[in-house]
Amino acid sequence: MKKITILSGKGGVGKSSITASLAVALSGQYNIICADCDVDAANLALAFGLKEKDFEKWEMITTNQKVRFDMDKCTSCRKCFESCYFNAILWENNKPELKEFGCEGCGVCQIVCPEDAITLVDVFNAKVGFGMTKNGFKVVSGQLGIGKSGSGKVVSVVKSLAEKEGQGAEIMLIDSAAGIGCPVIASVTGSDYVIVVTEPTPAGFSDMKRALSIVRHFNIPHSIIINKYDINKKLAMKIKEFAKNKKIKILTKIPYDKSFVDALVNFIPVIIWNPKMETIFNEIIEQLKGEIL
Fold it and tell me: Is 2-61+126-289 CATH 3.40.50.300?
């Protein structure tokens, strides 16, 4: 199974919309599965019109731990309170009390407690599941709880579930989170190819370079898609010059088109909403055939 990750340094450049339409185009020629690895704000399924009820049974997973106090053993020595680097422990009525969103599960308080009154317990703070699109392929998705940590671990579980549910698939299309953080690194790790989506804005250009630094670190073959290239043709040309100097292939340039917004509002991939887009995405596939497919 070839793993193709689509990422962007900057959010809002059209990465998930492009992923959805590329998936539809690829599914006409290959057996594919999609993995939505933007676990802090998973929305790829929405682009296909999938709702919560359309997913198979969600599986709760744990990515972190938090402390539990045994008040029968606690002698109110305050060592846990004084040692907590994250200020996650309150001191109320001469007893420790855990803040709801404060604990990072580091375990320092457990180490310093002289009475063995603190234990670490698993926190089931995320869920993963999958649904079948109308186009005949599955989308695996993960959702990390609000205010919870461990997004990189959830991404790894999503990818593992996609491998399990995609047995026999030729391509796994991975929709990464924006930025260069933990979930992006987890998404890129193990990929066979990366497509970086950008837009011709100063932030888009700058963040694309940061994203590319991660891809190059892992020595993964990659290329660029310039979305909405005609909103600033001068800057789009600078991106092309940058790519040429770095010997990075430009897969395509996609013009600004309001049908992308209309398609997203109606939960339909733009390639279906506007059949004129088929040419663009079929050309991307032809380009990929020389690179990875």
Answer: yes
Same fold, 2-61+126-289 and 71-116: no
Residue 168: the pLDDT is: 92
Q: Are 255 and 230 in contact (CB under 8 A)?
A: yes
Q: Where are the domains of the chain?
A: 2-61+126-289, 71-116
Write phi, then psi, for 188 (nearest 5 degrees).
Answer: -70, -35
For residues 155 and 260, give the distance between their C-alpha atoms in angstroms, rounded to a whole number.
Answer: 27
Mean pLDDT by 10-residue block, N- to C-terminus, for the chain (293 residues)?
A: 95 95 97 96 94 89 93 96 95 92 91 96 93 96 87 95 95 95 94 97 96 95 97 97 97 96 96 96 93 86
pLDDT of amino acid 195 = 98
Rounded distance between C-alpha atoms, residue 204 and residue 206, angstroms: 6
* DSSP class of 100: T
In sequence order, the β-bridge partners of residue 98 are 89
Compute CA distances 179 → 9, 65, 208, 291, whole Å: 4, 26, 9, 25
